[in-house]
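Colleagues,

For the teaching module next term, I've prepared a clean inverse folding example: a structure given as tokens, and then the sequence designed for it. I'd like students to try predicting residues themselves before seeing the answer, so please don't circulate the second half yet.
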């Protein structure tokens, strides 16, 4: 079973690859949380993977929420692994995940970092098409290696102390940040409502044909900004000239 969360398609593309290679079903964490479905039946030989992006060297809030609740039938101790998609580094997000699962009696065997194009346009310029192509060529090779490791149920290597210290500094920025106040739509908005329908936090409502952010905080997945068909959504002035990113294989499909 492959649980996944994705804002802009990277983690979905990785989950799809694993679904095909491992011949295991995938489950959308957003849908599971919405439906409050936390209990799953795992097959005898089945492994359990969690595929999602790294935010501020830690876990997206919705993924942490799900990990705190997910459970399997009592006698089952499946091989548990994580695939963390990231722009460059996962910091000590692996340790954060391990610690949540351990407290719940689950043993996380491995975390595999998977470098993919960076979607954090509030901070960085979106990658160009050429850059995306170059990065994804490497990703293709890396995910094949990851898939082979999962098939062999290999143990992983864990982040070092330095990564842990840095993650400890970064995590409060995510916990106390991810504020929606600066999100807004420009006059170019075509009132299609896509931003509201794709928001995994249900933080957007359409009023008088335009999106408004109705929650103080969201997951900060950047789906609304990156997947708006006319690039009308901005975060203050920080995203004005940053470009947008969505995984090319998934674009327009979801
Ligand atoms: C709020 C936020 C924080 C991020 N923090 C990190 C980070 O700490 N390290 C990193 O390498 N990439 C970081 N990224 C980049 C994403 O992890 C990366 O682009 C990921 O593959 C996006 O996955 P998705 O397309 O499935 O949403 C961040 C992205 C966002 C939106």
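(Answer key — instructors only)
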């Amino acid at each position: 079973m492959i649980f996944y969360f994705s804002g802009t398609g990277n983690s979905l593309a990785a989950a799809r690859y694993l679904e095909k290679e491992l011949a295991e079903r995938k489950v959308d964490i957003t849908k599971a949380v919405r439906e409050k479905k936390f209990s799953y039946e795992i097959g005898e030989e089945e492994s359990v993977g969690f595929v999602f992006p790294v935010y501020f060297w830690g876990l997206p809030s919705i993924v942490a929420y799900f990990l705190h609740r997910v459970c399997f039938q009592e006698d089952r101790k499946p091989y548990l692994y994580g695939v963390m998609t990231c722009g460059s580094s996962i910091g000590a997000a692996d340790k954060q995940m391990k610690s949540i699962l351990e407290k719940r009696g689950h043993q996380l065997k491995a975390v595999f970092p998977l470098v993919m194009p960076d979607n954090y346009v509030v901070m960085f310029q979106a990658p160009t098409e050429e850059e995306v192509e170059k990065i994804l060529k490497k990703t293709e090779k890396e995910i094949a290696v990851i898939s082979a490791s999962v098939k062999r149920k290999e143990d992983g290597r864990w982040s070092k102390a330095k990564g842990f210290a840095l993650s400890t500094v970064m995590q409060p920025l995510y916990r106390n940040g991810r504020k929606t106040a600066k999100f807004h739509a420009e006059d170019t908005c075509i009132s299609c409502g896509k931003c509201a329908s794709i928001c995994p936090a249900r933080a957007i409502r359409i009023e008088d044909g335009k999106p408004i952010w109705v929650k103080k905080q969201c997951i900060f997945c950047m789906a609304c900004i990156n997947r708006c068909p006319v690039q009308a959504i901005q975060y203050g002035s920080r995203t004005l000239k940053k470009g947008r990113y969505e995984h090319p294989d998934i674009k327009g499909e979801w």
